[in-house]
Design a protein that fits this description.
By secondary structure, the protein is an alpha+beta fold. The protein has helices at residues 4-13, 18-30, 41-56, 100-107, and strands at 36-39, 68-72, 111-116. The protein has one domain (4-116).
């Protein structure tokens, strides 16, 4: 994997695409038990496929369209539970909406891979 700027350059040149990068990110995430609290693979694949189509059309939402990112489990991501690393929050209802920062970066085309672990209520 490379940094976000290199990924964006590769998307723009056609050397890579967001779907390929996402699949690599998901593979790496699945090999890192304890790092991720949850993966949002279905959502991420939808976002990556849409991003790849935008790059092919020459109309990315931003220079970072298609770049995958993970959220600390303090941020609401629509459809997933925000535990803040606390056991008592594991059965909380899933978030109905993305947190403002999540929504902002998703509107820029970034791909939400999942939520990472943290110290309880950090």
């Amino acid at each position: 994997m490379s940094d976000a700027t290199s990924m964006a350059e590769d998307f723009a040149s056609g050397r890579s695409d967001p779907v390929q990068v996402l699949e690599q990110a998901l593979a790496h995430a699945s090999m890192a038990p304890g790092v991720f609290i949850s993966l949002t693979a279905e959502r991420a694949r939808r976002e990556a496929e849409a991003s790849a189509a935008r790059w092919r059309a020459g109309q990315p939402l931003s220079v970072f369209d298609g770049v995958p990112l993970a959220w600390k489990d303090l941020f609401d991501v629509a459809g997933s539970i925000t535990t803040a690393g606390a056991a008592y929050r594991r059965n909380a209802p899933a978030a109905l909406l993305d947190a403002p920062s999540v929504g902002l970066l998703c509107r820029a085309g970034m791909v939400s891979v999942g939520k990472t672990n943290l110290s309880e209520l950090a």
